[in-house]
Amino acid sequence: MASKNPRARAAALRRGGLVMVAALGLTVGPGVAGNAPAGGTIHPERWPAPAWPLPADPALEARVDALLATMTLEEKVGQIVQGDISSLTPEDVRKYRLGSVLAGGGSDPGGKYNATPAQWLAQADAFYEASMDTRGGGKAIPILYGIDAVHGQSNVVGATVFPHNIGLGAARNPELIREIGRITAIETRTTGMEWAFAPTVAVPQDDRWGRSYEGYSEDPKLVASYAGAMVEGLQGKVGDKEFLDSAHVVSSVKHYLGDGGTSDGKDQGDTQVDEAELRDVHNAGYPPAIAAGTQAVMISFSSYQGVKLAGHKPLVTDVLKGRMNFGGFVVTDWNAHGQVAGCDNTQCPATVNAGVDLVMAPDSWKPFYESTLAAAKAGTIPIARIDDAVRRLLRVKFRLGLFDAGKPSQRALGGKFELLGAPEHRAVARQAVRESLVLLKNQRGVLPLDPKQKLLIAGDGADSMAKQSGGWTLTWQGTGTTRADFPNAETIWEGLKSAVESAGGSAELALDGQYRSKPDAAIVVIGENPYAEFQGDLPTLLYKPGDDSDLQLIRKLKADGIPVVTVFLSGRPLWVNREINASDAFVAAWLPGSEGGGIADVLLRRPDGGVHYDFKGKLSFSWPRRADQYANNVGQKDYRPQFAYGYGLTYASKGDLAPLPETAGVSLAQAQPGLYYGLGMLAPGLSMALEGADRRAVGIKTLPAALGDGSIRIAAVDHRRQEDARRVTWSGSARARLALIADTAKDLTREANGDVQLMLTLRVDAPPQGDVAVAVACGEGCGANLPLRESLASLPAGQWTTLGIPLKCFALAGADLSKLSGLLAIETAAPLQLSFSRIALAPQGEAERTLACRTSK
After folding, report:
1. Strand (E) or helix (H) holding 352
2. Which residues are catalytic?
3. Which among 448, 455, 490, 696 is least surrounded, fewest beta carbons within 10 Å?
4. What pTM did the predictor assign?
């Protein structure tokens, strides 16, 4: 009997695939069995063969042929290169005849994350006009402008922000998905873009992956049921007059292929499953998307059996374009071509020869254009391959009607900014929130709550648009925004307050739970802080390792005799057994987006005692019993998730739960690999030392400790717990430093590329009286210093705060981050006293203050 759990089915498929492969005498890729060539053995004839739904169009082909016949090689190469708006100008588009531009994560008009819709539209106009400028003899070929509209046009202030895909998967409603796609297209068109980098049809198999929330489900069948619906929502239905009209956009199904199956859930990692699982699990969303006529497919950063997908010709050309009859164009992800063997960001004939039609070279577009032109002239890239790529791109541009559309502001929806966050759009988003909520526990029927009562709303997610929206919201990682950036939105607190007061009750907001008068019940909103790709990767599924503040908040309210309903915001299932045990009711709310009122719709009953909306959501990802229960465990016979795929209570269900096991199965060190110092302890493999002017290091064995000349001393102090922090005092008598040293050198280049910061939780007890430097070391004569005095002086004296130091600043200052042995040193010859309680790697935006990249004098 087949398992009802999708991950167990995937594991069984892996085992069955091996049996089939062995029986047929075939080779398989590394990490599976045998010794296959890199990239695995691919059999296109065994893959699905969906029909391309667009019939042959002789008139369209004649227009493409006529234009292509007039184009120079330079113009053809320009068409297959895409640059980012932060790294090129409209004049660059005119001069190099580039075929496409994108606004990537963190790229905005004028470099402002909160640029106005009018500024977005004006910029789109400028790029379009440059592409149509024929001065110098260039052909008028309209630009195609792409953007990550992955949960609404969430890059633009005022747009409707829908729940992330993981929540939509819990709704089990393909027609809702279609409507979300339609609205996203409308709001994208108002600001001038014609191409959305959506939908993601990954099938995540390891919840540690930082992009898990971009997947609808761990079940390939559910993903397949959504893929075509979202494509049709974005593009319109093939055959209808609305298909690719001025109210729709090009969809880009992504990331082809296996991005949800990388080993250990590592972003941009290697997927080492057999061909059968790659086809039946990870490819599930592509046949229905192709059948719906998606015009673009985006290639993954990741590898299959050791070969980067951006250079994998058997999968891109033979399977996608050949066997699966994909008739649109293929685009790479952000500089993914640079990771192909033998390539870098500036040159990669292999990616074009593998079948890629448009290369996303955001900040490397110019040298990539030049090297690709040279390769085409030399025959390294066949002219036939160049022509095929350009044909595919031109077909899409003609289908969109771009040649006759005029500039974006003159099109049907251009500048109709009243459509951004329009009431009817927000109503659909609110429906999506309601239908995505999953009730995990409802002890003694505490829900629904009576809105006529006195309710306390607590927790740091209660009144945070950033936290309830997650990554890819105004900024790449979803951090650094303010409430004012969401004019057409409602926080969870605002939605609850409105509903409660309308019913005659009262609501009090106290994030820390310190209420003014005892409430009848409390709603505690907690969860993950925003993150996106790479920075969101986790080593385990332990929730907030080393920080029990949310648990203590719930327990405190319970100890006061207050019923507690916990609303959990997250981009993936996490191990929260203790929080579930401490709560009377527990709701998985995922990342609901702009419509916090959808929470109130379900949690509160009608004044007459009836139910406004029942819980509808069912888990689209199984929930872990332990924090080490991720993909490496699911193939085992004892795989028993805490909550199985498909679990979800309603108000008619018996919602009582027996106490859940509170053994996490992981250590704090395992859960926090980026933690260097915390809770009064150093991470394994690290040591701390004091160094004098002679650079002789004296290891700190006991506290207090000091150098013999009195230039520096260190002692234990309290922050959150007894002696969990360290106070360092520089007397100013001589130059001295505090150093954090690794037993084995660490490679932090990937973290630096991902904008990770070294974050210090500290308190300035006595401000610096002279220059201060923060440094890293990478061996004899190798390292970098950054000036720290200004940053320390700007911090509030005597108050605990967080300071972020971007790793890339050290790289820009000359450090080799691939071999760091000195992870941190703070040095001065002047008087200074500061305390620190935590040193760790953290995503960009988490620190209250961030050091600017400047080298020390």
Report:
1. helix 349-353
2. 333, 533
3. 696
4. 0.88
